[in-house]
User: What shape does this take?
Amino acid sequence: MRRDRAASRRGTRGALTPVPLVRRDRARRRSHLRRGTRPHPIGARDAVRPGRGRGLRELLRRGASRCRPHAGRGDRSAQGGTREDDVTSGLPSPGDELPVLCAEIVRARTDLIPSVGLVLGSGLGPAIGADLEIDGSFAFTELPGFPPPGVPGHAGTLILGRLAGVAVAAFSGRVHYYEGHGMDVPALLPRVARELGAGTMVLTAAVGGLEPGVDAGTIVILRDHLNMMGAAPLRAWRYPDGMPAFINTQEVYDHEIADLAVERAEALGIRAADGVYAAMSGPAYETPTEVAMVQRLGATVVGMSMVPEALPALALGMRVLGICSLTNALGEHVTHEEVVRVSNETALAVGRLLVDLLPRLPGPKAGT
Assistant: This one.
């Protein structure tokens, strides 16, 4: 003990220097050996103090009190709640304010409130060019969170205007997951459209065919999709109360609008078909084995977009319509240049369908 005290007095100008833990413990062990008692393990007395874990336990206790059972697990009556009790108020989001900031920029230059958000995919920018009455135009680079366009055939512009008398927020071009962005970036398109007032999201894209006998130039109306991208668009999205975005995906693409789109295409003499979209991460096109796989899983067309926009739109309470331009039939050689060329050729048909369809769309979902 005297040596410990002497060691603790070392230092300059009388300052006390703490005895190293190992030396202090060695001295303690020698003392215990002389007394015949059992010492603590090295450092145990210093490492474990009463109440040391109290903060963590308190955090866990608070977290448990806030957590709710997963909406799909167990018996609701046993969980002490009814279906009405489990309804989460508000809309989910990834937690940033980017749509609000974008909307402020847009509203500073136009007071048009769109009822429909519209995304024009590869080569489909000209689809509505002549029919759109432009009220305001914004480059993606003007909008917080939006990167510049990085793929030919995608202009990278948000246009506020009227198409066939319907107020729209039209995105000429999109942002792709394969460009190196996270899923949160393509999700900005429906999020901004929703923030501006749109209750319906119309997504268009170029796709490859997976069904024999369906020719290039066919317009495909989506009924469902397979997410083969290896990432979840709603990952980290939460409701205002902290609940993850457990949304029902039995009807991602609104059946009523899809039926109407097929009906109007037939009335206009446009070759159209129903389809199930396989979303691949890209940018490489599919191998023969991958084509066979998604065919077996039920897909009829394949592409590299749509899903990162469709699921966020659904989560935000929007009606979703998917319109695809089939640019290459099953087994045909495909290049991006060919995709854009065929899309440009079918853009007229897509534009005719949109002009006819938009004024006939049902209103937004109840409560949105």
Observations:
- The two ends are 75 Å apart (CA to CA).
- The beta strands are 116-120, 132-139, 157-163, 166-172, 200-209, 219-228, 272-280, 301-303, 319-328.
